[in-house]
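Field reference: sequence -> structure
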Amino acid sequence: MNILWFSEIRWDYLKTRKQHLLSLFPKEDKILFIQPLSLSKNKFPIEHPKNIINKTVPIFRRGNRTLIKIAKFSIIRIITYNLLLRYLKFLIKQHLNDDIHVICVSNIFFVPLLDKFKYPIIWDFNDDPKQFGEIPNWVYKYYYNLLSDKNTKIISSSKGFNNYIYSKFSNKPITISNGVDREKFQKQNVLSNNNKIIFGYVGIISKWFFDFNLIKKISTTYPECEIKIYGPKDKNALDLINEISELNNVNIFPKQEYDMLPEIMRKFSIGLVPLQSCDKVTRVASGKLLQYLSLGLPVVSVYMEQFEGLSNLIMCRNHSEFMDGIDYYINNDLLQDNDIELTKYDWKVLADQYRIELNSSISKHKNNK
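Structure field:
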């Protein structure tokens, strides 16, 4: 199978859903991973199999205000996409022998190119693009038409997205959740924190989702406990981040290499997902939550529909419930065996499911010719 994937982030920025899934596809698959140009110096040595080719191309980005302003001019867009199309055709010929079986997309700014390719298309709905800010009108119409087209298969990362997606696009998605590397995040090596209770969070510290007020409340309610936060800092939230970093029992650390996460998390007493309780968060499925659970940690999290019913997890819709959840795990250390229920979230299982859906789209496309 030859796969062309248009990504919204670099392969070496974060190890996300795409890297986990694609890295577990059969080695005979050829995958051309197109990532946007970024001037950020934050890079991590995230390995990939030899059958995955990463290529960086210049494309519009909402994080770059200058590019977005320039993109308002149609002549600039026409020139940019024509040049990009020529380069992509060269890459496809060079690395996929000019033969694509399926296209996967998770970056709205590549959507205007898709009508130039007559192949089955998968939209990977891991995040709602609108949650990161307003989508420029000129690209939103392409995005809306793509997801409203019944020939476009939408694969969402959470069942919480399904009703939302259908209400917006009248297109029913297939759910293949975010997952966990169960081989890496094993519970038998969880450390005991007898001396001090440590609340831990690993993830993006974002102005959009992170609940800074909740961290303040946890800090003042449990002054004898330590709060450790690891992750990339949203540049729009630096004032808020600095504010909580000044709290006596809060320590904020930079983003860590993926391979270091199990060792870091094993030092937690309770895993936290302290995000704002709102519809945008309720719909998502945090992979970090699954990592905590796989390591054998009790978890207190904002409510996420996808994870309803998992053991050793208390999900909360407000600060009061969150504090009650922390109290419960401080006073109750007996956890349930959750190995069987977490098996369905193993990335190996999910990668097999994802590839089945790609094959299904390829077969349907051939039959419709």
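Note: Residues 35 and 250 are 35 Å apart (CA to CA).
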